[in-house]
């Protein structure tokens, strides 16, 4: 008799848990990016650029984030800061330039501000599915420069609009989880892979610890290894970055007369108004000395993002166009501390680690 009571009790506990899970998911799952929300990175590993606006897209919708996200914590508080409440606020001359020996380093540089706990190469979560044609399109390059013996310089100017993070007093060890999350976690045991995978499908693998949204302009310059090393050594020797270059050096070193190829100036948001502005305002003409000895294939004018450098007038003109339209930074932390039992927690992390390695190898 007591055994029958135990079976019935367990049955009703499981049914209650399923109802709680269904209610939590239906009420809290949405596509609104928020700190503390959990996502399943395995659901779209290698394809996250489909559900997070990190590169230009052809659609006209205004979404930034459309990955399913679930609230797993109770009463999460966040630090949220709105940068430049006035769209006419001056855009700071904050250029980031990275030297990349190959395409892999270029992709790594582009996704430098995206951190995924337990994943050594977070850019792979976005780019593992990208073909050479896709890489060329997303980085504004001619596809012939994506393979072969080429080196790259990534130039980027970002404008954050919203900066959000969990408060400093938040710790996953002391966080309060929603009842449905705690209930399913309590049923999991170390060694049961299926139960872990089911938990991840319901509640996610990682939660959002912080993010930054806004917009960025970027351009990739392609160099031969020889020209690239000369330029890299020149800037590293001075150790002062672009400030060590004169105006004429700036125009020359980052022009078609030193670079093999100048990629298009792109906006992470893909906003056509930004492209229209760039095509008009970022035109540069070749210095007179180059006209006489220019390569036959080199243009007499070109578009360069570096025209914005040390140019307050252009920066002021651009600022109103740099709206809150793209994801610039993201930090995801593994959802491990929902498991109070250390053995189960370590088992969860081992499943995360193994699956991440498998995805990286198989994509």
TrEMBL record:
Signal peptide start-end: 1-30
Domain MACPF, first and last residues per copy: 152-357
Domain of life: Eukaryota
InterPro entries per UniProt: MACPF (IPR020864)
Keywords: Signal
Keyword Signal: yes
SMART domains for the chain: MACPF
Protein name: Secreted MAC/Perforin/Torso-like protein
Organism: Pristhesancus plagipennis
């Amino acid at each position: 008799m007591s055994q029958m009571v135990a079976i019935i009790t367990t049955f009703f506990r499981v049914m209650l848990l399923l109802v709680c899970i269904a209610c939590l998911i239906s009420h809290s799952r949405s596509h609104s990016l928020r700190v503390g929300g959990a996502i399943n990175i395995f659901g779209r590993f290698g394809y996250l650029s489909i559900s997070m606006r990190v590169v230009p897209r052809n659609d006209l919708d205004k979404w930034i984030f459309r990955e399913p996200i679930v609230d797993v914590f109770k009463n999460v508080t966040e630090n949220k800061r709105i940068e430049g409440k006035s769209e006419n606020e001056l855009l700071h001359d904050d250029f980031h330039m990275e030297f990349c020996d190959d395409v892999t380093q270029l992709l790594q540089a582009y996704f430098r501000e995206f951190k995924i706990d337990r994943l050594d190469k977070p850019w792979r979560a976005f780019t593992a599915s990208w073909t050479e044609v896709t890489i060329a399109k997303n980085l504004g390059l001619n596809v012939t420069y994506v393979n072969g013996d080429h080196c790259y310089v990534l130039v980027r100017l970002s404008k954050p609009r919203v900066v959000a993070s969990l408060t400093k007093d938040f710790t996953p060890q002391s966080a309060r989880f929603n009842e449905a999350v705690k209930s399913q976690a309590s049923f999991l045991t170390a060694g049961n892979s299926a139960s872990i995978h089911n938990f991840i499908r319901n509640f996610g693998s990682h939660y959002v610890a912080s993010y930054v949204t806004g917009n960025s302009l970027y351009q990739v310059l392609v160099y031969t290894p020889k020209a690239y090393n000369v330029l890299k050594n020149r800037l590293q020797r001075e150790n002062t970055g672009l400030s060590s270059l004169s105006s004429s050096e700036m125009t020359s070193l980052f022009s078609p007369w030193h670079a093999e190829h100048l990629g298009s100036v792109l906006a992470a948001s893909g906003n056509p108004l930004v492209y229209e502005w760039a095509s008009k305002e970022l035109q540069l003409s070749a210095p007179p000395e180059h006209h006489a000895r220019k390569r036959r294939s080199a243009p007499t004018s070109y578009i360069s993002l570096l025209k914005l450098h040390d140019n307050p007038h252009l920066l002021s003109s651009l600022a109103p166009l740099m709206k809150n339209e793209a994801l610039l930074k993201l930090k995801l932390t593994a959802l491990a501390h929902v498991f109070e039992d250390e053995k189960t927690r370590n088992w969860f992390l081992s499943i995360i680690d193994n699956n991440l390695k498998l995805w990286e190898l198989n994509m």
